[in-house]
Amino acid sequence: MVTLVPVTAEHVSDLRRIGETPPVRARWGEFGPQWPFDETEVTCYTVLVAGTVRGFVQYGEENDPDYRHAAIDIFLDPEVHGRGIGRDTVRTVARHLLRDRGHHRLVIDPAADNEAAIRCYEAVGFRRVGIMRDYERNPDGSGWHDGVLMDLLVHDLR
In the record, which residues are listed under signal peptide (predicted)? Predict the structure, then answer.
């Protein structure tokens, strides 16, 4: 269903357009002028559906052998919400990280009120670990909101 390709300059205008949609902006805030090339410690992919840019997914890796794991972040065009594209994207990235990159544990940290995202991640095999209180600043800077720490171990992937 989805194809993940490394982000290139040709994807940026579509990704920024998606980022400006109210649902995405409410979660991700405003992108800086160098986004998505401003974070060198993460690996970024464009989510394509039938050749059309439909979202963005990134992962970061902790490579200390005593704490080795990876973390995932994702946003999709609201036009494709509810179609299984999020599950397919997260599952594809999880398989890559577990099978190809050798991780045994992945984490993801949606806002506690983002029920659709939580259901998506649970469908892939992520489990709720706990609530992180006042975890993340609201994108508009008005305060803080809780996050849900979720993890997936290699044997949990569905």
Answer: none
State the fold for domain 2-156: Aminopeptidase (3.40.630)
For 98, which DSSP code?
A: I
Cα(44)–Cα(53) distance, rounded to whole angstroms?
Answer: 13
Summarised one tens digit per residue, pLDDT across range 84-133 is 999 999 999 999 999 999 999 999 999 999 999 999 999 999 999 999 99
Euclidean distance between CA atoms 158 and 152, whole angstroms: 10
Using DSSP bridges, classify how beta strands 42-49 and 2-6 pair: parallel, antiparallel or unpaired: antiparallel
pTM value surpassing 0.85: yes
Task: Tell me the C-alpha to C-alpha distance, in Å, between residue 82 and each of 76, 97, 120.
Answer: 10, 24, 9
Q: Look at the block and give the residue holding tokens 């269903």.
A: 1
8 Å CB contact between 31 and 86: no
